[in-house]
Amino acid sequence: APVPEESLSLAGRTVLISAGGTREELDPVRFLGNWSTGRQGYAFARAAVARGAVVTLVAANTELPDPAGAKVVRVVSARDMDAAMLAEAPGADVIVMTAAVADFRPVVRAEAKIKKDGALPPPIELTENPDILAGLSRRRAERGPAGQVIVGFAAETDPSLDAARSKLARKGCDLLVLNRVGDGEGFGAADNEWVVLAADGGATPVPRRSKDALAEVVLSLAAARLS
Ligand code: CTP
Ligand code: CA
């Protein structure tokens, strides 16, 4: 499908966006985390506000100024984000999961700071976090005929679209924004770096673009799916 050229309006629509990277605490001063800055999610928030949407941004550990006109909900861990997204989701017309969610968290969060005592450190035992995106899709299905467009993100090294296609199916979302990463082997031109896959089989290649421009393309694809 061609990328819609015009900025499809989101006036009167509600858009829910996650951004940043979750942190999973080990003790009161330490965590497992990732390097996500949240910039892509903030770009979505600005773009959605500009199209007239009511915007909620669930932000994990970002250091960016609040986007003007958006409600910002701050969270730390994947479980915090899961609760915030599930609470906001029922009223949302469009949901965009840009956040880097930790797949695992420590089984135990120590109450006091972990000390070294001369012996080898104990291994950190991990358990799996909830899959927020899959949960949002499941909840939507339970509510019955949709009227809600759910968008996920993925970075894959597989030069074919197979891994992303199966991820899209597993997550149950409508659009998966795929970033093809790797050393370029088999990837062809940088033009193929981004592809928006649709659950109905569509694939829209997006030439290398800024985070703002990518947000515009994806919002147009999402808005076109709203009845
Ligand atoms: N995601 C989520 N909850 C998780 C993990 C991921 O909602 N616990 C979301 C991300 O925000 C992203 C999408 O799912 O929109 C894909 O994330 P990714 O890490 O690529 O998928 P995973 O299912 O975690 O698979 P992988 O083993 O490849 O990391
Ligand atoms: Ca993951």
UniProtKB/TrEMBL annotation:
Domain (DNA/pantothenate metabolism flavoprotein C-terminal): residue spans on this chain: 10-222
GO cellular component: phosphopantothenoylcysteine decarboxylase complex
Protein name per the record: Coenzyme A biosynthesis bifunctional protein CoaBC
This protein's UniProt keywords: Decarboxylase, Flavoprotein, FMN, Ligase, Lyase, Magnesium, Metal-binding, Multifunctional enzyme
Organism: Trebonia kvetii
Pathway: Cofactor biosynthesis; coenzyme A biosynthesis; CoA from (R)-pantothenate: step 2/5; Cofactor biosynthesis; coenzyme A biosynthesis; CoA from (R)-pantothenate: step 3/5
Region (Phosphopantothenate--cysteine ligase): 15-227
Gene (name only): coaBC
Gene Ontology biological-process entries: coenzyme A biosynthetic process; pantothenate catabolic process
EC number(s) given by UniProt: 4.1.1.36, 6.3.2.5
Residue numbers binding CTP: D103, K113, P130, D131, I132, L133, F153, K167, K171
Whole-protein residues included: 203 to 429 of 429
Cofactor(s) for this UniProt protein: FMN; Mg(2+)
Swiss-Prot/TrEMBL catalytic activity: N-[(R)-4-phosphopantothenoyl]-L-cysteine + H(+) = (R)-4'-phosphopantetheine + CO2; (R)-4'-phosphopantothenate + L-cysteine + CTP = N-[(R)-4-phosphopantothenoyl]-L-cysteine + CMP + diphosphate + H(+)
Cofactor descriptive note: Binds 1 FMN per subunit.
Function: Catalyzes two sequential steps in the biosynthesis of coenzyme A. In the first step cysteine is conjugated to 4'-phosphopantothenate to form 4-phosphopantothenoylcysteine. In the second step the latter compound is decarboxylated to form 4'-phosphopantotheine.
Highest taxon of source: Bacteria
Family: In the C-terminal section; belongs to the PPC synthetase family. In the N-terminal section; belongs to the HFCD (homo-oligomeric flavin containing Cys decarboxylase) superfamily.
Molecular-function GO term, any one: FMN binding
